[in-house]
Every structure is written in structure tokens, then in C-alpha cells.
From TrEMBL:
EC number: 6.3.4.4
Co-factor remark: Binds 1 Mg(2+) ion per subunit.
Annotated binding of IMP, by residue: D13, E14, G15, K16, N38, A39, G40, H41, T130, R144, Q225, T240, R304
SMART domains assigned to the protein according to its UniProt record, in alphabetical order: Adenylsucc_synt (SM00788)
Protein name: Adenylosuccinate synthetase
Amino acid sequence: MPGVVVVGTQWGDEGKGKVVDLLTQRVDAVVRFQGGNNAGHTVVVGQDKFILHLIPSGVLHENKSCFVGNGVVVDPEVFIAEIDRLEQRGVDVSPRKLRLSERAHLIMPYHKALDVAREKAKGKSAIGTTGRGIGPCYEDKAARVGVRVVDLLEPEILTEKVRAATTEKNFWLKEYFGAPTLDAEAIIADYLRYAERLRPFVTDVSVELDHMLESGGLVLFEGAQGVHLDIDHGTYPYVTSSNPVAGAASPGAGVGPKRLSGVLGIVKAYTTRVGSGPFIAELEDENGRWMQEKGAEFGSTTGRPRRCGWLDTVVVRQSVRLAGVSCLCVTKLDVLTGLKTLRICTAYKLDDGSIVERIPASLGVLARCTPIYEDLPGWEEDISQARSLEDLPDNCQRYLQRLAELVGAPLALVSVGPERDATIVVRDPLAVKEA
């Protein structure tokens, strides 16, 4: 199986970082294929915790190649700072190990300024972006006026593009939003400085991956966010500006779809969401607070508290279909320990009494939905030391079995704690090809 894609099946924050870190031991390379530094992957190694925003989670392993694909939008200041932080902690982040696609688009200061200005102007209608400039950068990419990594290596082209873009963006910032304008020459100077630092990392990632896959290498493709933040298939407009679905790994990394042979879907044992947007199974009671506190549910990128709720299998089931999920990894199961009754949302009920088993495209229709729950008994036993399904309490096993039945995909991994070894292997996620 040459290429395995890891995707989140909810609204992100499912624990993809830990899973990628765990599987990196057995692969040759890890590729990030979409999103920007609005993502945050947390990895715990012994007593050390690492939070990664742009660099693939596999960087914590020796002798593994890490690639940032063309589908990622890169803030060079953030990228360099992340390299520096890792190196200060003794992690090798040399160009030998980390490669950056020359075709990736760059987040510019005017992207961040526009992002913040728009959210402020929307007031209560704000969609809850991180203000990192992700959306405006993807806009410029689609409009064919974006600045790419390769432009950093050609100062004349960089200068021309930045001057033209800053003139336009300053008009919007000043005349429409009443926000401060930006100095094009200062931006150019900063980015030329970034260019010298990044030059050794820049490559044609597509070609390097092709050589690796052609020679029999095993590559892990790492997405950001989750399927229901996908710009096409998520709860639009409360979504990200790219495609976290597994199919996006092909254009986002520059590999043919035949190279992708399996998809591992990460599902948190309950549901969380950051920012605005519909959330049918959301809890605003003591159970929701339990999940938030026990699960430390605060965004690793923004620090914002995550909204918490019961496991919603309507959401996960749709992700299994959209992403072609081969098998599942259930994370944060230990957070549910101590709750007497667990509820699983199995479908929605509309206000006219009809049953909905998929996510409607219309937010108006979705707003008329309420959850249909199935109740299961909880467990009190500590499960953090479990290393096989048989080690888990009977009620815990029943919860996992029902989850897999409802979403239509088999279990591969079960995480019972944040550490690498706090994981139950049910089946090999790098060998399962079909659900």
C-alpha cells in the first residue's frame, strides 16, 4: 500500500497528530496536503508535548522525510518560527528532512489584515476564522494573483506581485473596512529575507514523492481540519477554505490517485467543534463541561474553548462515505470514563417529524433538526493501560462496537491516552484497503 491518507471525520481536532506520529515509525515519509497554520496537531512524546501547525507530525522521528505539499498555504514567518522552536528542542528540521513545495502559495500580511477586518465587520455573523489569512490566500490562489514559494526565489517577480496586490488590498482595507493600510516595500523586504532562510527547503515535492513511491516507499498523507470543514462538503459557510477530504491528497501533494490505497478516518469518541456553525449534538450541560475539562478541549492554534457534545454518527457516517474511509481510529475514549450513561446520535428528526440520516446542505433545514439518541451504559474503570480490546470494560467494548456498526467502517486503532503507546491496535491501518 504505497499511500495512506489520514483524515478527520468530524470538525477537526480529532487527534490526527498523535496517529500520524504513531504510524510514522513504519513509513518513509509524511506529507501535509492542505490547509495552513489555522491547524494545530498536538503530539505527546514521553513528558514532552509538541504543537505543530505547518510542519508534518512525522518530523519528530529520525530518518523520516517530511513534505509540505502545494495544496498548503504557508505563512513563511510562522514556518520559520516553527522550525526554530523544534530545533531549540533538539529536533532535526534540516532541509535533508523537511521539504517545501515550490508551488505552495504564501500567506501575505494583507491576507491576515483582510481576514481580521472582514470578521470584525461581520459582527455577530462572523464565521469564526482564526484570522491567520487562510481564506484570503486561497482566494488569491483561485483568482490567479497569488504569491507562490517559487516567487521568493525570483525577487523581480515577487516585487511586482506584492506591489500590485498591496495596491488592491489597501483600497479594500481603507475604503471598505476603514482599517489600516500596509507598506508594500516593507513586505517585500521581509519576504526577501524569508527567501534566504527557506531557499534550501524548496523543491518540487511532486517529483520527489513520485521517486519515493516508484521505488516502493510508503507515504502517509496528512490532512488538516476535518471533513465537515471541507469547503465543498462541510457546513458551508462555516468551513475552512480548502478540501480536507481524502481525495484532495492527490492534487494537494501532486501524486496520482492510483498512488492512494487506503484512508484512515480519525474519530473522537465524542464530538467537538471550534467557532461558529451548526452542531446538532452539542451539549451545554454538565456532560459537555465534563468533556471539555477532562479532554482539555481548547484549540491548540487559538486557545479557544471547543464546543462539546455526544458522538454524532450522522456526521461520521457521511465522512466515511465522502472520504472513502477504509478503517477508523477512535481517539480520546478515556475522556468518557466515569460518565454513567453515554448517548450516540444516530439520526436527526425534523420539526415535521421526518427522519434525516445525512447532513442537509441547507442550514435552514439543519436548524430545524434535533438529535435522535441511542443510550448505552458507561464505565467507571480506568482504561489508560488497556492494550487490547479484551482489556477494556464490557460497556466500553459495546460502545466501540456500536460506533463501528453505525458509521459503517471497522476499527483499526483505539487511543486510550495522549501518549504514543496508549493505543490499542485492532487491525493494521497500513494494510486495510477496504471497509
